[in-house]
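Example S7 (structure tokens).
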């Protein structure tokens, strides 16, 4: 009796799974041989509202597969869940774009664009390595001190970073978005 109950339970689970998921492709009509009395029976329609959720073969942007420890490439910087995903994103998205931008500006000075260009030889956070910006009287002092570099950073680097990171540009009214303070420390001088 116990074996019958176990077999019946397994059969019920199998039928439930079949009804919820169904076959991946229906069997061809030619599956029934000539002269055979068997007929192909289509499974009953599945109520998609209550059916089991579908599982995509494509991982989500911030998912890490459980079968392996390999991180999945995030779609945007904000989707990067950890240091490995951030590193992947930097190497695959940020580095190629920024290398293009810097070399277009000065191919000789930026002949070699690497992680060290923004993170330094000790791989610090950019805010700890890049020059500190001074904001005084409603403007960055570097606008007068280094006008060519300021213009390049403002017109080329900043928009490229906003785009590649999938961010919105910094908005002074809402104080949100990506701006110079995303990479540089800003000293708010009086």
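Recovered sequence:
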């Amino acid at each position: 009796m116990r074996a019958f109950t176990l077999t019946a339970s397994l059969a019920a689970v199998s039928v439930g799974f079949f009804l919820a998921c169904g076959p991946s492709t229906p069997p061809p009509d030619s599956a029934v041989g000539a002269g055979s009395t068997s007929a192909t029976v289509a499974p009953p329609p599945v109520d998609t509202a209550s059916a089991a959720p579908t599982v995509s073969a494509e991982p989500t942007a911030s998912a890490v597969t459980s079968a392996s420890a390999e991180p999945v490439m995030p779609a945007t910087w904000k989707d990067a869940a950890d240091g490995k995903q951030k590193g992947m994103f930097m190497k695959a998205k940020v580095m190629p774009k920024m290398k293009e931008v810097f070399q277009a500006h000065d191919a000789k000075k930026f002949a070699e664009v690497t992680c060290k260009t923004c993170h330094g030889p000790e791989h610090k956070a950019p805010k700890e390595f890049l020059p500190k910006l001074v904001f005084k009287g409603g403007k960055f002092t570097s606008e007068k001190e280094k006008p060519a570099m300021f213009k390049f950073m403002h017109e080329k680097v900043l928009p490229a970073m906003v785009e590649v990171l999938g961010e919105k540009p910094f908005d002074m009214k809402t104080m949100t978005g990506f701006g110079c303070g995303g990479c540089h420390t800003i000293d708010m001088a009086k």
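Notes on this example. The longest strand covers residues 133-136.
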